[in-house]
């Protein structure tokens, strides 16, 4: 719809004689950067409190797109040592085996999906402050902007981790006219911004969330102050150089907000403890007909070969630790004899992800939870040489899984112990790959991977493959987009 409107508007400009803009007008803009209702004049398009709430909910609903329902876990786990790609789709195999190129369909889809959500957040941030409906109080107006800022920050955090330098699009393109073509052009065809600029904007957006968003809500599917503190902790642990003092400060703010671990690990996944005291940001799903979670059907069940098959290496890691509680909550084995064969597992004991169990579409997805932040704080304290404090936090997470206290005593040993703990605690939640990259461990860990028989998987991961190629389809539309080295 918006492309049709844009074309009509541009043709009108041509007919008016604006031939100097011919080169600009002949090109197809990057639609995911633009407002959903692009018009040809500057008008106040949203005027009511109801419209403000609807705009925000539209941005939240994109957490239920294919990127978050499936690809987030492929990217975070199948790209790591936690899972094989599974199923039978070549784009996923390419991601799993570090063989992707700029034409990979997952790469182009994820780019478009995330930037579409950015555009929706921009629409909220741009338009809601202009609404004068008395039913929309200033307090609620600020909260909406704060929540939308969290959504945009979350999107850009994934974008910068996947692609490095990316276009930093912060304004809604609400109109195209003869008077603003020169200003609109760089917004429609943006260049890539340096990672440092992207991270600076992520931090600024999260600071806006902390200042304006609510402290809590009726569910955990809200970009609250606590969610912003948690995401900031992850950002400061990822940005180069890592800022461990700020990781620690942000983790403390999360703890002070009153989150607490559930008593039993399996309660996180039993579908009876949603929006729990441990959840910080959680995609709220009801059923197939009401904003359902279709992602659960992608990873478990014998009706077809599922995505994200747990690896031998992960199963061995659980077994070596004696971690039966988290292993059984995370992985279930089924006999698939006669259904399919697999290069990594025998048909009689084929593993599936067990964290996402409700095939009615009603199980929530937890994107950020307290255990993640406690382990990040432990990591920060390790780097700040508070080894006693780090071990206390590490043991708090381990003890919930009925494991004994850590035996690590040196800083080097604690680093590896926390890395292992994050792997076992957060398996199949989309974190492992990003943990390996930010700690500089991705290349040695992945190149050492072996199958169940001890044969090398031959990944040959190199530095340039730590980030993805810019989609060729996007570069075809926008020649200002440069390509990442090695692609």
TrEMBL record:
This is RagB/SusD family nutrient uptake outer membrane protein. Keywords: Cell outer membrane, Membrane, Signal. It is found in: Cell outer membrane. Belongs to the SusD family. GO terms for cellular component: cell outer membrane. It comes from the Bacteria. Signal peptide: none annotated.
């Amino acid at each position: 719809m918006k492309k049709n409107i844009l074309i009509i508007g541009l043709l009108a400009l041509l007919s008016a004689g604006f031939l100097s803009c011919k080169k600009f007008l002949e090109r197809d803009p990057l639609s995911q950067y633009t407002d959903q209702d692009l018009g040809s004049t500057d008008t106040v398009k949203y005027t009511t409190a109801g419209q403000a709430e609807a705009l925000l909910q539209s941005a939240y609903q994109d957490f239920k797109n294919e990127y978050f329902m499936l690809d987030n876990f492929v990217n975070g786990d199948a790209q790591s040592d936690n899972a094989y790609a599974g199923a039978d789709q070549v784009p996923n195999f390419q991601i799993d085996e570090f063989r992707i190129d700029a034409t990979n369909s997952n790469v182009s889809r994820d780019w478009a999906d995330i930037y579409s959500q950015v555009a929706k957040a921009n629409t909220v941030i741009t338009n809601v402050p202009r609404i004068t409906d008395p039913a929309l109080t200033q307090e609620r107006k600020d909260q909406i902007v704060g929540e939308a800022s969290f959504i945009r920050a979350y999107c850009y955090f994934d974008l910068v981790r996947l692609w490095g330098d990316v276009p930093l699009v912060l304004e809604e393109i609400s109109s195209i006219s003869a008077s603003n073509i020169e200003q609109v052009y760089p917004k429609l065809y943006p260049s890539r911004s340096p990672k440092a600029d992207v991270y600076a904007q992520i931090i600024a957006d999260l600071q806006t969330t902390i200042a304006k968003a609510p402290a809590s809500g009726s569910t955990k599917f809200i970009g609250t102050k606590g969610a912003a503190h948690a995401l900031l902790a992850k950002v400061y642990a990822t940005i180069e150089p890592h800022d461990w003092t700020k990781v620690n400060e942000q983790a403390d703010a999360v703890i002070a907000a009153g989150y607490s671990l559930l008593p039993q690990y399996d309660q996180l996944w039993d579908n009876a403890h949603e929006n729990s005291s441990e959840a910080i940001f959680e995609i709220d799903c009801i059923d197939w007909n009401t904003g359902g979670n279709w992602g659960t059907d992608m990873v478990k069940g014998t009706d077809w070969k599922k995505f994200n098959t747990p690896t031998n290496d992960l199963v061995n890691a659980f077994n070596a630790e004696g971690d039966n509680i988290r292993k059984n909550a995370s992985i279930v084995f089924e006999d698939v004899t006669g259904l399919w064969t697999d290069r990594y597992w025998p048909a009689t004991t084929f593993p599936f992800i067990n964290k996402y169990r409700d095939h009615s579409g009603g199980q929530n997805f937890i994107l950020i939870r307290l255990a993640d932040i406690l382990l990040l704080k432990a990591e920060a304290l390790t780097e700040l040489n508070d080894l006693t404090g780090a071990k206390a936090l590490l043991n708090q997470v381990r003890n919930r899984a009925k494991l004994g206290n850590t035996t690590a005593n040196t800083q080097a040993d604690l680093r590896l112990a926390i890395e292992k703990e994050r792997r076992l605690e957060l398996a199949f939640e989309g974190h492992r790959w990003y943990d390996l990259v930010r700690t500089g461990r991705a290349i040695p860990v992945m190149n050492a991977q072996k199958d169940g028989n001890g044969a090398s998987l031959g990944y040959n991961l190199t530095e340039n493959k730590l980030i993805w190629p810019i989609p060729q389809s996007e570069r075809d539309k926008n020649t200002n987009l440069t390509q990442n080295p090695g692609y």
